[in-house]
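Suppose a colleague, Dr. K., hands you the sequence of a protein chain of 442 amino acids and asks what its three-dimensional shape might be. Before reaching for any lab equipment, you can write down a predicted structure in token form. Begin with the sequence itself:
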Amino acid sequence: MEWNIPTLKELEEKIWKCTACGNCKSAYDYGPPPEFGEICPPGVAFGFEGYLASKGKIAFARGILSGELEWDEELVDAIYKCTVCAGCANQCELDHKPYIPEIIEAMRRKAVEDSVGPMPSQKKIVQSMKSYDNPYQGPRRVRTDWTRPFKKAKKPIKDINKEPAPILYFVGCTGAFNLPVRGVPVATASIFQKLGLDFGILGQNEICCGSTAMRIGEADEFKRVAEANLKTFRKLHEEKGVNTIVTSCAGCYRAIKKDYTLSSDYDKMMEGITVIHTVEFLYNLYKEGKMNFSGGLPWKVTYHDPCHTGRHLNKYKFDVDGTIAWKDAYLETDQSECLYDIPRELLKAIPGIELIEMERIKDNSYCCGGGGGVMTGYGDWAAKNASLRIEEGMNTGAEYMISICPFCHYNLNEGSKRIGSSMKLYDLVELIDQVLPETEEA
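The predicted structure, expressed as tokens, is then:
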């Protein structure tokens, strides 16, 4: 299987399209009056230009390519002190805009290639992937521990390796192995059973999507698990009738929907299969009148947009032949696949919910602070990042924060504990499960 994962050298032309204007350093909301806010977690924490948004990172990329910068601990540290949230890319209006996250990750791939990356604390991710096929150092048998309540209630979840089903619920490693987040797969499976859906899980045979490895520059490890997953998906479609893959994890969703397309065999392997996030899947059922709520939750909530279901799903329009502006000019951004409005509409449909927005939302949302390998590489800083977002949520007067990413779920709750806040983050499916009644078909 061939992969089109660009090297830093292959991105050199895009790197030199940065004019160092600095527009990437803040989130802008043009008024009147014009407003702006912080958008870059490492820029907020460390301030120096090398850490601040794509302007600093692009300067590093140029120095590495030209040979003016040699690898040392400080340079490697600066490259990995980035959540790759794409906040800077969202602000940029230059022709290299769509490539900024890729450039940052290409520097990390170069660091790995030159045996100086990833960071020492992140190497356990790679070893865990090789030993257990997940980044949590979790034995494979633990992957199904979250299903025990269903077995006890005599509502076991179908093993799709043995029984056919049209829907594969791809749980993801965070939901399966991270104890504080196990409520996400539990609520998801509970909802599916209440709706009478025919679905199954891979159980102990599920392996990591590879997103974490890709984010820290470990391309070979990413390719290994991605190829295995693509072959599994193809086999499940042909032998078990799977035509829909649903995932509650923003990282898995982004990886399968975007990273996997870098494979030359993606279209062939995924033909006849739809990949969809749980919230969009449930939203479609809600709009079709197949999901109705009872009771209510008299909660004041605010909503946090995950980077991987938002900015990372941007699609870009270019002037390919130069007939509008100039060859390969960036023209506009298509946000139609970004999950901004759908979770908000579904949240507001829950009786009793009052949604109060934070100042930085949707494409200007502030990262939870744990992505891009930061939660493993710099755990204390990740929690500090998260506490800034929690404080922003508290300033709205909301009681709870809601999101649709188990990674954000864990890190934001850690940030809340760090500052002694009573604000807790819930996944949207955890709310839906509370107000969704059993159906006769379930």
